[in-house]
Amino acid sequence: MKDKGELEKLVTKWFTQNTSAPTVSSSAAKGGLNLDFTRILPDIPFILKGIPLTLLFTLFSVFLGLIWGTVLSLCKITAIKPLTWLANAYTSVFRGTPLLLQLALVYYATPQLTGYDISALQAGVLTFTLNSGAYMSETIRGGIQAVDKGQTEAAMSMGVPYRLMMWDIILPQALKNILPALVNETIGLLKDSALVSTIGVVEILRSAQIVGANKYIYFEPLLFAGLIYYVLVMGLTRSASVLERRLRQSE
Question: Is it the case that residue 6 has pLDDT exceeding 90?
Fold first, then answer.
């Protein structure tokens, strides 16, 4: 490579100033605002392609996290002490460590420990399910314990089995009370889904970063990505408000 001059070319390419880089406009050089959204117009469909993946990731994580959180909450209120200790220890670990660290451990450690080549999307869904389950478990536990004890006593006096009592009587009332908290958790998952871009998932944020790298501009694509997240969150908030209002009217 040295004899052929290839090494010198690499040094020139990566370690010297690139004179062919895009020129900066005079307004930007003077510190003025230089926005040109027309430059990213051809790439908007590419950024929008990240929306279905982001929504799919969020819905899977919320659905599985709700199931796992319910299981953990039942373990926390059971009379079997070992289950209570395990559930509390699990919650403590996942609430006490950074989500990004958990994501990296699942994605990079799973192949090393199990030999299974986990995909980035699978690692993201698994990590967010485990993490959101820890947070939801506390919310669901509070909702269950907020249900009047007379409901439990009445069901037990009528001979209703514990499983049916929780499924048909207690949990529906608890979920109705904790709906706003679950919506907040869902919104948090939707925004935190941007973290999966760190392991290569091409969702909204990653798409915007790719466009920025190709066009040598970052503010416009990132601002557009932020607008998409905002619209999605507002749509989710509006849908949750409608659902909450209907549940109140059905009481």
Answer: no
